[in-house]
Amino acid sequence: MIEYHSLTDGALCSAEGVPEAGAPALWIDLCNPTRWEERLIAERVGIAVPTRAEMTEIEDSSRLYVDGRALVMTVAVIEGMADGRPRRAQVTFVLLPQVLITVRHANPVPLRTIAARVARNPGESDTAPRLMATILEAFVERIADVLEQVSADLNTISDMVFFEDAAEPQEQDLKRLVQRLGRQNRTLSILRESLLSFDRLLPFLRDATSGKAAKTEDEPAPNVARLSSKGAARLKAIERDVKSLSAYEAQTEQELTFLHAATIGLIGVEQNQIIKALSVAAALFLPPTLVGTVYGMNFRDMPELGWQYGYPIALGAMAVSALLPYLWFRRRKWL
């Protein structure tokens, strides 16, 4: 699907389809585009639109490059938080001097809410480079929101594991906590990749839009979009946010690793308690079993078989043989 957006009276106005020649399109959004739609946009703007396979490549040369008058930049983003199944997706920005093109095969939250963000301050999104800066700010704020959710959930898990206000968690509860920690680890992994991609994109974009980018050492910087000094300052602020979020993500990852190890340790302790109880029970019943086995052999010449007090004495011997190990375990504080 292709949508194009123009800024009219301080608001983003959207329409489906390819903008007519000369139409004041500020942003063209390709969501799950078909090959025909990709070729159609490529013919209209003169720039090859990256395919889905090209967007998933991880090397910098495939994610950040200059194509004629366009800056092509691909970042990893997170989606699926609402349904509890976080997954990574890629969004490609094709920045031309007059229009911004986004290519995506997902529907992340920042792109769904960008119109409301632009309406609050339309003067900061009235050109393609400024609109891209606004979208980048929205993505970084989304990362911060997800990190806050993960941190809050880890605090809840920490209370459940380490504080004894409630009953001690059972093994099944601990297993569910391990699964919960696994989901948060997946979320942090995607956020880490996303922050890394933004950390690489922002210097590239800042240098390119300030005229420092060049294809070769002997070739001047291409005629790409330009940002004002205020726009460059916005990118610097976003860079600082990305670096601070990266540090926060690393700290959160350490906390998650500790909680995971502690939860696994508690599961091991609980299982050891079960094995201990079974071992003690086996040790307590082993001597009575031995006595009962001896007097259950029914040999003809066993003198105790004909003894009047043999049966009660045998029962007493069983009880004493179980009681003595029990008292010994209690004295050694094994029970």
TrEMBL record:
The chain crosses the membrane at residues 309-329. It is found in: Cell inner membrane. Pfam families: CorA. It catalyses: Mg(2+)(in) = Mg(2+)(out). Keywords: Cell inner membrane, Cell membrane, Ion transport, Magnesium, Membrane, Transmembrane, Transmembrane helix, Transport. InterPro entries: CorA_cytoplasmic_dom, CorA_MIT, CorA_TM1_TM2, MgTranspt_CorA/ZnTranspt_ZntB. It comes from the Bacteria. GO terms for molecular function: cobalt ion transmembrane transporter activity; magnesium ion transmembrane transporter activity; nickel cation transmembrane transporter activity. The keyword Lipid metabolism does not apply. CDD domains: EcCorA-like_u1. GO terms for cellular component: plasma membrane. It is a multi-pass membrane protein. Its main location: membrane. PANTHER family: MAGNESIUM TRANSPORT PROTEIN CORA. Belongs to the CorA metal ion transporter (MIT) (TC 1.A.35) family. This is Magnesium transport protein CorA.
